[in-house]
Amino acid sequence: MTGPVTGAALVLQGQYSVVPGALEGWLHDHAARDVVAEASDVLGRDVVDWWGDPLDLCDPVAADLAAVVIGVAGSRSLAHSGLEPVVVAGHGVGEYAALVVAGALRLDQVVDLVNCRGEMLVHSQRPSCAGMAAVVGPGAGEVARAVVADLGTTRSLRIACFDGPAQVVLSGRREELALAREGVVAAGLDMVRLPGRTACHGPLVQSIAERLDGALAELDWSVPDVPVVPNVDARPSRDPDQLARCLGQQLTSPVQWEATSHALVEAGATCLVEVGTAPVLGPLVRQVHPHLPVHLADGPALPATTARTEQTLTGAAPTRGER
Q: pTM here?
């Protein structure tokens, strides 16, 4: 694709989609390098060196920050190449990047906040005690709702992400996820543990969300140039107050990505551009809009439409034994 690109929805991946080398592809563009330099200044270290080591990206704080910085760097590079999105959205921590890209928040404040947020989440329940798992297959949402209801509301098990018609993600304690898997398998679907995940978007991180309130209140908000679709309510908005309210609820609320897929097209998008090295969000959107053109951008030049892919997990694939 060359020249100005209009009518596009721009979507930005979350932390578990970042892979080693994902940043390097953007460093040939000065707009992306400026973003990387600013992030390095805020953090007091060279992020290119930091995230170049695959082992460092196993650190959830580094992964969070990398997702945000890569999302912003890639988006600004694409804007320099002619991309003019009509609406922007990000999955999970990618929403922070979306808010920067749209002009609602400053990069320096968001980098500082995401760093603080990540450090807090490190002290949440360990992945060996609690985490996340994807329910995969037709009718995943209905099956997941039934399983959560059967186990009772007094437990911490919740639906964390409504990713698409054939994928939702559960969040809860390890023993609750094990019980949930029995119900999912009995319904004829598969359930895949997502390794290394913090049990976000549920009650297990409520205390962290409360500690984060002070930092969120200090953000300087502006009216964004284009609408942003928040994870919490999937309603495109340019209202800073509404976007701030949604961001304040994001950590303990389910990610409404299936509804976001609908909202992107309803906001006027005629194609989708996803920033990343592998398709993650595009295939989820195509579960809702199978004929929507989807482009994957892993460097400054806007690419051709990606081939149709099967459903995907919003993050790294499970390792052996994680099912």
A: 0.92
